Amino acid sequence: MQKKRLPNFWILILFVLFLFLLPFVTPYRSLASQMLIYAIFAIGYDIVFGYAGLLSFGHAAFFGLGAYGTGLTLIHLSIPTLLAILFGILISILLAFPIGYLSIRRRGIYFAMVTLAFAQMLYFIAFKWRALTGGDDGLHGVPRPPLGFIHLQSELIFYYFILIFFILSLMLGIRIIQSPFGKTLECIRENEERARSIGYNPNKFKLISFVISAFFAGLAGSLYSLLQNFVPLFTLNLDTSGDIVLMTLIGGKGTLYGPILGAMAIVLLKDILSTYTNIWPLCLGLLFIFFVMTFREGVFKELKEKFFKFL
Questions:
Q1: Could you tell me if 47 and 170 are in contact, meaning their C-beta atoms sit under 8 angstroms apart?
Q2: How many structural domains comprise the chain?
Q3: Which helix (H) or strand (E) holds 230?
């Protein structure tokens, strides 16, 4: 048993070392922070998509609500940073309850379309409510207050601040998927009728997973507003929802680690391609097609089965 756990231990050590050195190997340090933020977003999305089997096209709503919630409270209330992050998360969770409650009553593509409709509605509200959100100009002037004696203006210090949230999010995500709740989600995903027949309420579990996912998305959005000192309108846009779906699919849905690696890789790839060519969306699209066609179960799951079965 000890020999079986040994490779996992060394892989964990290497991964932690990689995360600590990441801001020193990326083209600029804020890019490393952005990679971790989208990795947090991917953890939450994989719970609802990979484990509960709910394909949401509207998760940009919770990412954007977290960003706007934190940004607005910091601008108008001047509250401590951690409280502002908590406020952004709470807004995402509170909106996730009614959106999830109405959405889970539909299945498959109909569920996806309902979540998309809610996200577009919030996008339209933010676009028109210029006095509050800044409209298509975005919300400018989001401050990054110090955390006690720790000054978060340094991009390196702020990266490690985000890294703490990422590690906590990863630990929480692992705990959720390994718990009886996580196993029940997989049961519902595989056969909802059988889960219902043995006494589970699928809608209840779906709603809880949807709200948990919104929690992670709100956290990621809150950190994003602090990173950028600005909340762009596209945080609520369909493109953001589409990106997190692709990150999860390419990495490998239902693995937790796959979407994390997929999110980090795609954020890095976008930045590199956009630096060297104006047709980077075309290049990125072709790469997406290649990975989806080549790695049907996602890159992480395919490589794990072929080369890293001990994981």
A1: no
A2: 1
A3: strand 230-231
261 lies in some domain: no
Structure tokens at 16: 């932690």
**Are 194 and 11 within 8 A, CB to CB?**
no
Backbone angles phi, psi at 150, to 5 degrees: -90, 120
Is pTM, for the whole model, over 0.70?
yes
Number of H helices, E strands in the chain: 14, 2
15 belongs to a structural domain: no
Question: DSSP alpha helices (H): ranges in the chain?
Answer: 2-25, 29-46, 60-76, 81-103, 108-128, 130-133, 155-178, 180-190, 192-197, 202-228, 238-251, 257-276, 280-294, 299-307
Residue 56 lies in a domain: yes
In a domain, residue 13? The reply is: no
**Using CA atoms, how far apart are residues 20 and 34, in angstroms rounded to an integer?**
14
pLDDT tens for 178-237 read 999 999 999 988 888 888 888 888 899 999 999 999 999 999 999 999 999 999 998 999
